[in-house]
Amino acid sequence: MKTPRFTPLVVDLPATVPFVGPEAHMRANGRPFKARIGANESGFGPSPRAIEAICKTAPDAWMYGDSECFDLRNALAAHHGVTPAHIIIGEGIDGLLGLLVRMIVAPGDPVVTSDGAYPTFNYHVAGFGGVLHKVPYRDDHEDPGALLACAEDVGAKLLYFCNPDNPMGTWHSARIVERMVRAVPEGTFMVLDEAYIDAAPPGTAPQIDPDNPRVIRMRTFSKLYGLAGMRVGYAIAAPQVIAMFDRVRNHFGMGRVAQAAALAALQDQAWLRQVQQDVAEARKTLGRIAADNGLYMLPSATSFVALDTGRDGTFARRLVNALMARDVFVRMPFVAPQDRCIRVSTAPDAVLNVFADALPNALAEIEKSSHAR
Amino acid sequence: MKTPRFTPLVVDLPATVPFVGPEAHMRANGRPFKARIGANESGFGPSPRAIEAICKTAPDAWMYGDSECFDLRNALAAHHGVTPAHIIIGEGIDGLLGLLVRMIVAPGDPVVTSDGAYPTFNYHVAGFGGVLHKVPYRDDHEDPGALLACAEDVGAKLLYFCNPDNPMGTWHSARIVERMVRAVPEGTFMVLDEAYIDAAPPGTAPQIDPDNPRVIRMRTFSKLYGLAGMRVGYAIAAPQVIAMFDRVRNHFGMGRVAQAAALAALQDQAWLRQVQQDVAEARKTLGRIAADNGLYMLPSATSFVALDTGRDGTFARRLVNALMARDVFVRMPFVAPQDRCIRVSTAPDAVLNVFADALPNALAEIEKSSHAR
Q: In this protein, which residues make up the domain named Aminotransferase class I/classII large (chains A, B) (predicted)?
């Protein structure tokens, strides 16, 4: 008998990870990146008030964080016009997705997502033995009608929908999402991942009855709030859904300093608005850089952009690698035909200038090596 | 069909939480505690270098933490004389216990622990449908022989052993633990929870071959390192065991600031030694306070002490409540006969003085109300 006796489920899981982090790439490169614009972190940084809150709380780091996240949950409830019972806080959307999948997906249970959507969701579904059914993108957008039809067809317990979309940056209007929520099949629970909603134009965030038991919306402090390194996400759903998280979550998992940072960030909406403007400006700058290099930038409602190379995944992969070799960290979609694009995060001008300098050289190198073949 | 369709396992879980946190108690009390000595946090605080690291890293909080925790893992490997492949870092021991249970325990699988040992472990076992077999304490110590016999008897997949013990503070010598590790039945994997090992006398930490595939030892920065609020724990085990965590963990779950804080704390061993002395002194002080009030302090190898009331669980519960009413936060063991004790964390003198002032009044109040019946 071999020890430990891992569960058959875990033994059968692949030894892959959803993402290689920028630090791992840098270690492989042997030097730091000059432009870290691949993980959709906010180079505009967190609110100075969040930084101050971190420093101010540091001497109290000997105390566990409030296991009920009372202050942050109440502030979020007021911010969203719901009650604290509608809100669960967790270790980023990643952590909350893991808990949600655990709560709903048993081995063999059907789950629906888009082919090429967030891999960490797929990682959790596989991790609990769920069976993924993937719906193709349609014109680089997630396809609400096809997702609903598939969910109905396979009897999905869970349906994942990201709006605005990662990795393409495209989006659907509030009206379409609202229609989708109304049309979710009986027995299907919809995950609306709104990680990038703060970067979207007005009219993107749907009105959802917070007591609707068929949908959960997920938000994060990791993107426009600039606190990826503190790991704070949250979700809004009906109280009977939120209450179930208490049966499985790591109750003291939310650190004291992280909670203080998120609360301070939430209270500085002026900073968020400034970052929203910065992101919008940076998208324009990236559009110009793309056009200067013969690439096409897809319209984006997120803090990143997809740049269409007009070629295929092999070309885009070589471009990503050529940029990495020039100390520019970017990523790309995983699935064709979206993988003809590279994905670039918005950032301050100084960082985008590094990208602008590296891009023509990277492209020239690829063209040259292509011709040499 | 009711939506969401939670798994049968989750539906059947109780809606209880392992611990009510101090903040929740304070909100119930309507005012802050004057002595927070119930959660075994370190009132001596974290190393000033850890505080400095937190502040210094705060402006970088927009970046995800290294998903491989490279620097911290390497430093811990050097500290323990193992390789980084022997180490997994997670969101406290609580988080690591959850992952480990998930990796090994499927519904119906037998697990062995001591009756009255760490409830959060039990919470995770229940959460994944494991069947707990509980072995009584023996003279307020966990009972290695009985634990091993039970594991053999039920064919346990997992065996939990905490040394030094929480909640009693008692301990076994390295020699006994080493013998236990050798005697773990085939097919049983042993979890050695060493959260409090930094407070134990020399000769308590066993020598364990880091490549032994039958045991994992867990450590934390939450106790003597004084960083409970940053949520950093780690485990040491054979590389093939450690590698399995990568299949299920939240890869970007360890925050950037938390990693920096833990690394700085590890590098300040002088601070740890000072805290070890402070803890030893505080245990003596608590012993005097106990004796002054007719209570008996059990010998302790941890950063807390169990004070024997000489009565029963009902009496101890009333004492805990009477102390809480006097703004002194303490806890108590859950299971008889250990629940005749209250559990008090070590802390600086100023805090222990608050306890010393409150204790006689609390005891007098209980005696008075007893006589009045």
A: 38-359
pLDDT in tens, B79-115: 999 999 999 999 999 999 999 999 999 999 999 999 9
pLDDT digits (tens, 9 = 90+) for A195-211: 999 999 999 999 999 99
Work out the angle at residue A16's Cα, subtended by the Cα atoms of residues B247 and A218, and round it to the nearest 5 degrees: 70
Structural contact between residues A230 and A61, judged by C-beta atoms closer than 8 angstroms: no
Residues paired with A87 in a beta bridge:
A236
pLDDT at residue A372 in the model: 64
Q: Which letter, b or e, does each residue of B328-356 get, where b requires 16 or more Cβ atoms within 10 Å of its Cβ?
A: bbbbbbebeebbbbbbbbbbeeebbebbb
Give the count of beta carbons closer than 10 Å to the beta carbon of residue A292. 11
Q: Is B5–A61 a contact, with Cβ atoms under 8 angstroms apart?
A: no
Phi, psi (rounded to 5 degrees) for A253: -80, -20
Q: Which of B1, B6, B12 is best to mutate for the A interface (most A CBs within 10 A)?
A: B6
- What sign does the dihedral B53-B58-B60-B62 (CA atoms) show? positive
Q: Given CB atoms, is B127 within the 8 Å cutoff of chain A?
A: yes
**Mean pLDDT to the nearest integer, B213-236:** 98
Q: Which residue has the tokens 């007005």?
A: A202
Q: What is the pLDDT of residues A39-94, one digit of tens each?
A: 999 999 999 999 999 999 999 999 999 999 999 999 999 999 999 999 999 999 99
Percent share of chain A, pLDDT over 70: 99
A55 contacts on B by Cβ (under 8 Å): 54-55, 58
User: All domains of chain A, ordered by start, with CATH?
Assistant: 20-45+270-371 (3.90.1150.10), 48-267 (3.40.640.10)
Q: Does B64 touch chain A (CB under 8 A)?
A: yes
- The values of phi and psi at residue A145, to 5°, are -60, -45
Question: Are B17 and A246 an interchain contact pair (Cβ–Cβ within 8 Å)?
Answer: yes
What are the CA-CA distances from residue B203 to residues A133, B163, B198, B206, B290 (Å)? 55, 12, 11, 7, 27
What is the distance between the alpha carbons of residues B185 and A127, in angstroms, rounded to a whole number? 28
